[in-house]
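sorry for the late reply, my laptop died twice this morning and i had to redo everyting from scratch. anyway the thing you sent over, i finally got around to it. pasting the sequence first so we're on the same page, its 275 residues, then the predicted structure underneath. double check i copied it right bc i was rushing
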Amino acid sequence: MRYDFHTHTNASDGRLSPQALVNYAHECGVTMLAVTDHDTTAGLEEARQVSESLNVQFINGIELSVSWSNTVIHVIGLNIDPESIPLMNGIQTLESLREERAMKIGELLHKHGIDNAYQGAKALAGEATLTRSHFAQYMVEKGYVKDISKVFKHYLVRGKPGYVATQWASLEQAVNWIHSAGGIAVIAHPHRYRIGTAVMDKLLDEFRQLGGQAIEVVCSNMEPKQISRFARLSQRFGLMASTGSDYHGPHQNWNGIGQLADMPESVKPVWTCFE
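ok and here's the structure:
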């Protein structure tokens, strides 16, 4: 069995359609797959239908944006009901915040000589959730910056000209929305948050007390020592262990789908809830 519980389609900031993503995951040997687009469930039905035709076990998912202690945290919901009213209301709230942020980003970039960034990003997004990746794609296509990673590094992260601080959902709201949809709440890619050991402990303790159930122990570009660290934290805080590539498309060569490290034997894998 191969598992991947963190992937993205062009319903948010991924490059592949839900159909293409599932086909590619199947080619890579993935047997249980979750699509977890940012703050949207729009691609789930298409992905589910394709998964059934390929005999890939499909898990409905979402990745929610959370503001916690001056840090943006991402919380994944696995095995959710996409038609849950509280979840749909939460998604609508986050979509409004994304639109407000995008307009502000466009204004800031315009002041730094980048014209029509909002309109360009909006056009690239189409019906998908509008993200910073669409701004990055626009700036690369128009020749302002050579590649997407440099756009983020020089324009779209904290302290840079196009960064806009946004107050997303609270940790409690995100967990509650996921639970209301019958899902399992998972802390995504914990190794990427620039927080110290004590603050990480505080986050996981609060998350557990709110009803959070799992943490990504294995994900792309994690070093073995990081996997070992989060396996220990998984055990310490009584959280199940999840795994996910955070795959966005072939333009990113660091997070190959179906190529994740093995899950440590010391933890309880989240997939035991779905088998």
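The first strand starts at residue 3 and ends at 4.
thats about all i looked at so far, will dig more tmrw
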